[in-house]
Write a structure and sequence with these properties.
72% helix; 254 residues; mainly alpha
């Protein structure tokens, strides 16, 4: 391990911590992050469920959230296994690195430390995904405690409290899922360390730049922000005096 390696590793940790701190704030350059905007949409979703008794749509959404989290958790386990398999192929990796240009290989010990750090990244991601899966499970149970419309109308305060419990649990589960996914993304930048520490810092900066752009300057963020109705909205252009297509207008013609 050289001084440049330690500097690159410190840069990686500081940039990760700084980006996580940035997302905990409400705004960045006056812009709300995609994560915070989705938090409000989660709230709209749960409160909308109070106005219907048939909640099959909501349970399907919950199942989709759990399935996605389980997929990334199992993927993290496979990645950890791949890291241990890579440790057993150090000799072959040395032979490959010896033929590659611009690759600074500092020996077996440094390579094993880098692979160990990569395995730690995937282990962190697995724990985040595993806990997120458990919280989504709790969220499903809390959602089952939301009262029906008749009970909601008789006790609105109790219904709103039940909805707020679901919202808080759902937001916390989503936060852990995002942190695990962030570790997966940053592992792509971590791979640059196997070339040399300067590439490591460059790939890390590129990954953080892409993630920041998606959070604050992407089309996905604009798609869920509150805005006026589009000019080409077809439903708003319908006239009340136009005959309907359901067959009811035929009665006056008979």
């Amino acid at each position: 391990m050289t001084t440049a390696d330690y500097i690159a590793l410190a840069f990686f940790a500081c940039v990760w911590a700084g980006y996580s701190w940035l997302l905990k704030g409400r705004t960045f350059f006056g812009r709300t992050s995609l994560t915070h905007a989705m938090t409000e949409r989660r709230r709209d979703w749960i409160y909308n469920s109070l106005r219907r008794d048939l909640k099959m749509i909501d349970t399907q959404i919950m199942a989709g959230l759990q399935n996605g989290t389980a997929f990334f958790a199992s993927t993290s386990i496979f990645a950890i296994g791949s890291c241990f398999a890579l440790l057993g192929a150090t000799e072959k990796v040395d032979a490959v690195f010896a033929d590659l240009p611009f690759v600074f290989h500092s020996g077996h010990a440094a390579f094993e430390m880098k692979v160990g750090g990569l395995a730690a990244l995937f282990g962190y991601a697995f724990f985040k995904f595993g806990w997120s899966y458990r919280l989504f499970n709790y969220c499903t149970i809390l959602f089952g405690a939301i009262p029906m419309m008749r009970d909601t109308e008789s006790d609105v305060i109790a219904a709103e409290r039940a909805a707020e419990r679901v919202i808080r649990m759902n937001v916390i589960a989503g936060s852990h899922f995002n942190e695990g996914l962030r570790a997966i993304f940053l592992s792509i930048g971590y791979l640059g360390w196997f070339i040399n520490p300067y590439v490591f810092m460059l790939t890390t900066a590129i990954v953080i730049f892409v993630l920041t752009r998606r959070q604050f300057f992407s089309e996905a963020r604009l798609a869920i922000m509150d805005a006026g109705p589009p000019s080409n909205l077809h439903l708003s252009a319908l006239r009340r005096d136009m005959p309907s297509n359901d067959g009811n207008d035929l009665t006056g013609r008979l």
